[in-house]
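Box 3.1. Reading complex inputs
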Amino acid sequence: MTDVVKVADEAGLVEAVRAAIEAGKTLDVCGRGSKRDLGRPGQTDWTLDLSALAGVTLYEPEELILSAKGGTPVAEIEAMLKERGQMLAFEPLDYGPLLGGAEAAGSIGGVVACNLAGPRRISHGAARDHALGARAVSGRAEAFKSGGRVVKNVTGYDLPRLLAGSYGTLAVLSEFTLKVLPRPPMEETVVLPGVSPEAAAKALSAAMGSSCEVSGAAYLPGPVAARIPELKLDVPAVVLRLEGFEPSVRARRAMMISVLMPFGGVEVVETAASPGLWASIRDVRPFVGTGARAVWRLSTAPAAGPALAARLAEQFKGETFCDWAGGLIWLLMPGEASEADKVRAALAPHGGHATLVRATSAERAAVPVFQPMEPTLAALTQRVKASFDPMGVLNPGRMYAGM
Amino acid sequence: MTGLRLPEADAGVLARREEIVAALRGIVPGEGVIDREREMRPYESDGLTAYRQLPLVVVLPSNTEQVSQVLRYCHANGIRVVPRGAGTSLSGGALPLSDAVLLGMGKFNRVLDIDFPNRCAVAQPGVTNLGITKAVEHEGFYYAPDPSSQIACTIGGNVGENSGGVHCLKYGLTTNNVLGVELVLITGEVVRLGGKHLDAGGLELLSVIIGSEGLLGVVTEVTVRLLKKPDTARAVLVGFPTSEDAGECVARTIGAGIIPAGIEMMDRDAIAAAEAFVNVGYPLDVEALLIIELDGPEAECAHLLGEVSAIAQGCNATTLRVSNSEEERLGFWAGRKAAFPAVGRISPDYLCMDGTIPRKALPLVLSRMRELSEKHGLRCANVFHAGDGNLHPLILYDANKGEMDAAEEFGADILRLCVEVGGVLTGEHGVGVEKRDLMPEMFDEVDLAHQQRLKCAFDAEGLLNPGKVFPTLHRCAELGRMHVSGGQLPFPDLPRF
C-alpha cells in the first residue's frame, strides 16, 4: 500500500521531500492525478499529493503574466483567463478522456511537467515556450527559484523551460509563472476534403509556407474525420484553422482558398463549429473509447507526416491522424501490444521520437515509453537528473528505467 | 582591467604554452592556430570593450571533428576554453582568459540545408543571423529573431545568449525559434538535440543550452525555424507629453488584445540624440516617443492601425504619424536603430544596460533613474523595448575624465532597481562578466547552486568559459555534497561529485 503525503505550501513540500530522503523512500509526484498513467508505471513508496498546493497567486492581464501554485486546476486558470479575453496560447491538450479519466481534471504543474501543447503548437509553441519563472523543490529537499515574471529574461540558465517536460523527475513545481496571450476574437476552419496523404503533405506545406498565419493544421483520414461531428465528412481531409481579428481572418480565408486551389475545392467550417473540431483534434477524441488499445504519439519532420501516418496505419492495421501540419502523428494500435521496436523502426528514417502515451501498465513496464537515447545523451541526461535529485527520490523510473 | 576579478590563471598551463600550441596545431593545421600576440589582438575583447585580455592561444577549427578533438585535448589536460562567435557580446561573454584557449567558430560559416517544405534551415554556428534570412528570403521566408547586431552576430552566439530583438514580443526569442543543435561537450563527446521535428523529446536540454553563454558546450550546428515574411508591415509614430501616457498607451494596446510586431519607446534625450544624428522628423517637444509596428495581411494592419491610433489619442498623444510607405516606415525605425551611435556622438563613452521590468513599473523606474542620474552626476538616455519591458538605459560618461567607475556604479544601481520592482538583470544581452557579480541581487545561494550543479553535469571540471555568469566558482564536489542519514544511493554506477 502507498502512503499519501499531502502538502499545502512550499515549506510542507520541502519537509515531504526531506522526510522521503531520510526514510529512504521514493515519491510519486502527483498534481491532481489526471496523468498518472502517462509514462512508465511507478514503483514509488509514497504519493506526494499536491492538490492542496493550489491557487492563482498573480494575474496581471496587461503584463501578460499569470503565476499559480503547482496543484492549481488548469480549468480554473483557463476560466480566469477567458473572463479577461486571454488564454494559455499553447492550448494544452487534456489527456483525461484518452487515458480513461475525467475531462479537465489536470493541474497546471502537470501541464508544465509534461510540456503539453495542442494544435496551436505550430504557431505559438508548447508549454515550455510560455514558461517564465518557477519556484520548485528539488530532490535535495531545497526550494529554489529560477527565471522571473517578465517575458524577456536571460539571467542564468533557463531552468523553468528545463522543468517543463521533465515529468517531475528533477523538481516538484511549487509555483510557476506563465506568459499568457489575448484570445483571438474570431476563428474559422478551412477544410480541403478528399486528399491523398501525399497531396495532404503538399497542401499542408503550401498553407504553412503562406502568410495565412495558420494556427492549426491537421490531416484526418476518412474514418477519423467521420468521428468528428463538426466536420460532417467521411473522406480524408486537411483542416486549417485561422484565428484573429475579423478583417484579418476574412482576408486570410480568401488567401487560403487561393493557396489551396491546386489541391481542389475547399469548404469553410463556420466559427461556431470550429472550436469543437479543434478540441477533438487536441484531445485525441477520435481515439477515445477504444479501451486499452495502445496509443503512440510520434513527433517528426512535418512534411513526412501524412505519408508516414498512412504507412503506419497500414503496417499495424491501426488508425492514425496528424496534427502540427504533419509533425505530430497519433497512432492507435489494433490491440494492447505496443510493437515498440517496429513503430520506432518505421519512424527512424524520418527522425524524431515516439512516445507510448497509452498502454496497459504491463506494456509500459515492458518497453521504453520514451524514445531511447544515444549513450552519450543518456549519460548526460542521467547526470542532469542526478544534479537535481541525487538520491532518485522524485518519480524514479517515470521517464527511463534506472533514472 | 580594474575591478573585474577573473579566475586565477593556472601557472602550470601558462608554462606549457608552447607544448599546448603544438598539440593544437596537430589537430587544426595551418592558419587555424594563432599564437602571435599581434594576430591575437583582434580577439582580446568582445562588444564590451571596457575589458581586454589576450588569450593563451586562438584556435579556429573548421569542422565538428576538430572541435571535438580540441575539447578532448583541453579536457584531458585541464586547459580552460572560451568559445567565441563574432564577438559582439555586450556583456563580456567572450572575454578571453590568459590561460584559456579561445575557440573561435568563425570558420563554421555555411548554411548546410534549407528545407522549405519543413520550414527550417540547418546552419553552422558562424553564419550571421542576417545570413540565414539572406539565404531564404528569395522564397519569402525569414528567421524571426533580429538582434540589432544581426548583420554581424552569429547564430551560434545567438544560441549562446538567447538573443532577442525588437520583434520578440510577437515572434519570441532565439529559444522559441531553434529546433535543434549539434553540441560538443567539453569531453569531446558529440550530442544531437532536436532536429526538424517540433519537440526534442527527453529532458528539455536544448532549452538550457540556449542562453547558457558558452558554459555548457560548443554548438557546431543549429536547426532554426523559418517563417513566411508577413505581407505588410506598417508603423505608427506617436509622441506623448509624459512617459506615463506612453506607458498607458502600451498597456491599453495589449489590454485590447493587440500584440504588435514591435513597440519601442525613446525618452527625450534619446529622441534628441537620434534626431540630431539621422534627421527623420522625430518630434522634439515630447517626453516619450513610441514606434508601434503592426504586421500581417494588409486588412489586419489597416484595422489595427485604426485601433492603435484611437488608443493613442485617448492617452493624450500630441503627435501621431502612420507610415504610408515602406520608406516612411523604415524612416521611423532609422532613428531608433541609430540610437546607440547617436548617443555615441554626444558622449565620448556610453554604457548600455539591459534590465527588464514589468511594464507598469516604467514611470517609477524612469523617475528613480533621474534621481540616480543626479546622484552619480551622469546623464542617461533611455531606449526601451516597451512591449516586453526590456530597458536599455545608455549611461553617458567620459573615461578620460575618470568617470568609468561612476558609470558602472550607476549601471549597477539601475539593475538593482529593475530587480527591486520585480524585473531581472538582463533581458537579452546576457550576464557574462558584466552582470556576474549582481547575480545575488536576484538569486540566493540555493538558487545559484541549482544552476551551478547543472553546469557540473555538463562540465565537471569547470573548464568551459569560467568566470562568466556565476559570481563564485564552486567546485562541483562541494556543490554536490548532500547529507544522507538513511537510504541507499540509487545510482551506484554514477561518480559522485
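In summary: Residues 485-497 of chain B have pLDDT under 50 and may be disordered.
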